[in-house]
Amino acid sequence: MQRGIGCINPMKMARCITELERIYGIQRGGDRKSKQDNLVLKTQLDLSQELGISQQQLQDYKKLNNLIPELQSMVENDSIKATVAYKIWAKMPQDEQEKFFNDIGQEKIKLMTCY
Predict the structure, then answer these.
(1) Percent of the chain at pLDDT above 70?
(2) pLDDT at site 12
(3) CA 67 from chain center: how many Å?
(4) Hey, which of 45, 48, 54, 92 has its CA 20 to 30 A from 16?
(5) Tens digit of pLDDT for each residue in 53-82?
(6) The ParB/Spo0J HTH domain covers which part of the protein (predicted)?
(7) Burial of 20 (0-12, 13-18, 19+ CB in 10 A)
(8) Cα torsion through 103, 9, 94, 92, rounded to 10
């Protein structure tokens, strides 16, 4: 795996992390019950080190997967910053995200969260 990667899209990183956690059996620290031959047990810390990011960054990226598709698209297109998305939007239940998104609209959200 490549270390210290540059400007990767935050949504792609979030999806990759989720898939790697699935492959490695990482859930709240790792799958410690399965006894499979040649299985290297990994933790979030191990994975974050392999990716060249902190464990906190890994957890923040994962939060982006909790966004509704419209907001994920905005993060992917760099219409809203990933930090705004995981610090504010991802903390809201998806039904509230939908309501807020529909009430305010995409253009106003862009203006509210501009760099």
Answers:
(1) 80
(2) 96
(3) 9
(4) 92
(5) 999 999 999 999 999 999 999 999 999 999
(6) 43-109
(7) middle
(8) -80
Q: Where are the domains of the chain?
A: 10-64, 68-112
Amino acid at 68: I
Torsion 73-77-81-86 (CA) sign: positive
SS3 track for the chain: CCCCCCCCCHHHHHHHHHHHHHHHCCCCCCCCCCCCCCCCCCCHHHHHHHHCCCHHHHHHHHHHHHCCHHHHHHHHCCCCCHHHHHHCHHHCCHHHHHHHHHHHCHHHHHHHCCC
**Mean per-residue pLDDT, 31-58:** 81
- Residue 37 tokens read as 């031959």
Return d(Cα 45, Cα 93) in angstroms, integer: 27
The residue type found at 39 is L
